[in-house]
Amino acid sequence: MKKVLFLDRDGIINVDHGYVYKTEEFEFVPEIFDVCIHARDLGYHIIVITNQSGIARGKYSVAEFDTLSKWMCEQFEQRGVIIDDVFHCPHHPTKGKGDLLKVCDCRKPEPGMILSAAKKHNVDLNNSIFIGDKISDMQAANAAGINNRILVASQYGDQSDVTARRVDKIAEVLAFIV
């Protein structure tokens, strides 16, 4: 079984400017490549787990998201890091349009994307890590059985009852990837 470094996208891989779907709007978070290289060197695979309500809201299409994801993965590959997969939830329970307006088991805080990734890629969740910037990331990781959860301080507030290691910036997670 594989150990995986699961990464949220907006706020962890890229600066969260809100509904980012174009390469010219995609700004990598400083040190994200260093974190991923460190994880790779320790034998971790990398998988992205991201809510994309902009699709549900009609702000961009799945095709535009896929194009950006392919470009993002190429940027990592140019730096020697392979992203094994990108899982996204295109739904929203209250603001989605058409059949994307729904409650689903893939939108974080639900663990559906993580569990799908684990099944598809033979992941050892107990020895994996999840890095996110929202409480919903930590809730999804916890529900999926990931014990090593790292919450990067952000604009989204905090809940002390959610168990996670807390850091102020992405560079500080290096100490917790062992």
What is the CATH superfamily? HAD superfamily/HAD-like
Strand content: 15-25%
Q: What gyration radius follows from the Cα positions, in whole Å?
A: 15 Å
CATH class: Alpha Beta
How many E strands? 6
In CATH, the architecture is: 3-Layer(aba) Sandwich
Q: Mean of residue pLDDT? A: 94
Domain module tally: 1
Cα distance spanning the termini = 17 Å
Binned, the helix content reads: 25-40%
Order of helices and strands: EHEHHEHEHEE
Outline the structure in words.
The protein is α/β, with parallel strands linked by helices and 178 residues long. The protein has a single domain (4-122, 144-176), classed as HAD superfamily/HAD-like (Rossmann fold). 28% of the residues lie in helices and 17% in strands. The chain has five helices and six strands, in the order E-H-E-H-H-E-H-E-H-E-E. It has helices spanning 32-41, 53-56, 62-77, 112-121, 135-144, and strands at 4-7, 45-51, 83-89, 129-132, 148-152, 165-167. It has a six-stranded parallel sheet, sandwiched between helices. The longest helix has 16 residues, at 62-77. The radius of gyration is 15 Å and the shape is globular.
Present the secondary structure layout.
Elements: E1 4-7, H1 32-41, E2 45-51, H2 53-56, H3 62-77, E3 83-89, H4 112-121, E4 129-132, H5 135-144, E5 148-152, E6 165-167
Parallel strand pairs: 1-2, 1-4, 2-3, 4-5, 5-6
Task: Sum this structure up briefly.
The chain has 178 residues and is an alpha/beta fold. It has one domain (4-122, 144-176): 3-Layer(aba) Sandwich (Rossmann fold).
